[in-house]
Amino acid sequence: MSQSTNIRVLIVDDHSIVRQGLTTIINRDPEMTVIAQAEDGQKAIALFRQYQPDVTLMDLRMPQMAGVEAITAICAEFKAARIVVLTTYDGDEDIYRGLHAGAKGYLLKDAKPNELLSAIRTIHRGQQYIPPEVGAKLVQRMSNPELSERELDVLRLMAQGMSNLEISSTLSIGESTVKSHVNRILSKLGVSDRTQAVIIAVKRGIVNL
């Protein structure tokens, strides 16, 4: 390594054009080098072990293994891992899950190149990087009542258009139990019907269609 200031970056994204674009922007900066690229979470873990980069840019939604699972695995093994979530998704659930898994920053893909480079430097210094609009959504998420695992299961099946009867047979629970789960979901999401519940859940990143 020619310079002590060189920040070694791992890029994880399932779109090669995104990886190429990020690599071009980062390698233009004399203080940064992209040392490896991965197209899914499993490869990200393997490459992280191999290179132990200074900063990792991690997409959230990828095949094989998604970003949150990869972040969780890397942070469990490498406590000092510095990971920035870089995604097109700004639903409060996505933000919460990424940071909760251990990411130190959150950046949207429509960020300007200078903001990207600034985020990498900030994370490298050991600080968090959370833009104000992301922080606002995170605060909103923290104030929302948490859905239980079972309620999340029911909500995902609702999003697939299943009736209470179909949900009860899929989850092997009584139809009356499904009804009470649905009522609690509506109440926690602050909506009055199933359609609104699904729209809100998709918008916030709780379920993916």
Provide the gyration radius in Å: 19 Å
Let me know the average pLDDT: 92
- Uncertain parts: none
Counting helices, strands and paired strands, the structural category is alpha/beta
Q: Which geometry do the CA atoms define? A: elongated
List the helices and strands in order. Answer: EHEHEHEHEHHHHHH
Largest sheet: 5 strands, parallel
Number of helical elements:
10
How many DSSP-defined strands?
5
Q: Give the distance, in angstroms, between the N- and C-terminal Cα atoms.
A: 45 Å
Main sheet strand line-up: 2-1-3-4-5
- Beta-strand percentage? 5-15%
The helical percent reads 40-55%
Walk me through this protein's architecture.
With 209 residues, the protein is of the alpha/beta class. It is built from 10 helices and 5 strands; from the N terminus they run βαβαβαβαβαααααα. It has helices spanning 16-28, 41-51, 67-77, 92-101, 113-124, 132-143, 149-159, 164-171, 175-189, 194-203; strands at residues 7-12, 32-38, 55-58, 83-87, 105-108. The protein has a 5-stranded parallel sheet, sandwiched between helices. The chain is elongated.
